[in-house]
């Protein structure tokens, strides 16, 4: 997933951490758009026919469709052709892995036309539509892995993938799970800390996943309305939500909404969070926020 992963287990042995690593590696093999044999790659090149996939992939595709509806289509997993056109075809962690899409694949499309057959464990995408799990895939992978750890006997667990965190069960202290939020203008420092009993924290940012293409710096956030790199006045949005995939979808959608509507968007979806502007302003759904620098914590959202 081209991200650092961290797993914390409460009252569990080393074997649970090892299980978590194997589970995440399994999901990456199924969901990575950079692996030709993954479920996602085979679906994207499936020419409209049903493709046999793992049960977890059925959950992923369902979550992408739900997120598309939840955000009023601001979160759109069909922007992959635009990312490739902007120069993000090759994995940032493995230059040997490259995304290849059929000719005629376009941004946009009706996700309701995706055919999911749970009994046969197959998915059929309409011709011309391709899916990219992106950040939602990281959030959902954290969801599934954390729940797996609880099911295997852990009293509590926190799973972080590239800064998308999911915490379940018993926290390590009375203050709950403490999550440091990185300063979006200075990635060497943390800006504030959140203490949560359980749930997810995710950050969407235009300052990560950057590369240079055709002489200028690019970022990964594509506006589905234009099919082009988003021109938002926000640099990052951090969201807390019940699940990792919801937090990711809402953070991405709020970032696209911009400073004028991001906080209203989050409160309208019963989510809490922060929006950070190009002008170094911090907007928040919280009434009273002390956004003072803190010492780095082991759990971090960025």
Kindly summarize this structure in a few lines:
The chain has 302 residues and is an alpha+beta fold. 28% of the residues lie in helices and 25% in strands.
Describe this structure in words.
The chain is an alpha+beta fold. It is 28% helix and 25% strand. It is built from seven helices and 17 strands. It has a seven-stranded antiparallel β-sheet with strand order 1-5-6-9-14-15-16. A three-stranded antiparallel β-sheet has the order 2-4-3. The protein has a three-stranded mixed β-sheet with strand order 8-7-17, with no helix packed on it. A hairpin with a 2-residue loop joins strand 10 and strand 11. Helix 5 packs antiparallel against helix 6 and helix 6 runs antiparallel to helix 7. The longest helix is centred in the N-terminal third of the chain and has 18 residues. It is globular and about 55 Å long. The two termini are 15 Å apart. About 3% of the residues have low confidence.
